[in-house]
Model the fold of this input.
Amino acid sequence: MIRPALGALVLAVCLGACQGEESAAPPPVRPVLYRVVKPVEARVFGPFAGVVAPRYQSEIGFQIAGRMIARDVTVGDVVHKGQRIAALDPVVSRFALTRAEADLADARAQAENANATELRRRRLLAGGNVTQAQFDTAVASRDTAQARVAQAEANLQKARDQIGYTELHADFDGVVTVRSAEVGQVLSAGQAVATLARPEEREAVVDIPEDLVGTMPTDAQFTVSLQSAPDVTATARVRETAPFADSTTRSRRIRMTLLNPSDAFRLGSTLTVTLARPEPVHVELPASVVLSADGRDAVWLVAPDGRSVHRQAVTVIRRTASRVSIGEGLKAGDRVVLAGVHTLQEGQAVRLPDAAP
Done:
């Protein structure tokens, strides 16, 4: 009777020992994703793509209608004040000038005749040979003829001006940025022929997403660099912000005045615009990496050998729904676990995605 009871006791002890070993088994090896810590010393706004544009530019055209017979410039040409840009067919304007000259000659002849008639009747009136009414008629005819002379002279001057309007000249030194008409085209008065830009006042024109415009510091100096030569830089300050966003791109146009740019910043050059503001050294990470417990914040770091993790206390200086800024507790090169922070244990074995199984 004693031997069966002793066997049962030994069996129970063995089963209890096996269960203890199972309960003391280490947690399984978990694969983890991580990010290498890179401290940030400045907050960068951008970069955004832009273009060099003139601050002042004008669409120029003829003051009269006609058919264009010459265009002396094209896009990119540098023009000087008084230089001819284009010309209209002057035949119609010359006919108008000839007619105006003839009208003036006719008006002057009629005025001379009216003056002579008024002088004769004045003498006859003194001798009592004409009535006062006849003399008054002669005076009115003289005044009318003189007015017609003045009108004819004005028409002649207008015809001469229109001859000058058949040629389009530059009003200032500039660069042709747009060509709007071609030779042989019939133009109306005021229709644009070309666009002239003043190169001495240059700006950086940038389209910035509407949701970022509110965070853009308007009083800061932006860094502008040429995309073709990133080492060539200049500074710019915001001059104008478009009041409304573009309905297609949902971006707003920002105009920045270039401060003492070099000659390399030619009109039409593409730019990269950024703004770097110094800040205390910190680390930007997703908000999911932080484990908060008992009012303290911590993250999980991968051990140097890449086989386990340990908890590291950190100080969060700025927190949003998706991002956190950590001021203390991390250094460059640390590997921070990105996900599953609530299921890890101190010293738990892990496997990195770039490690061999």
Notes: The mean pLDDT is 85. DSSP finds four helices and 22 strands in the chain.
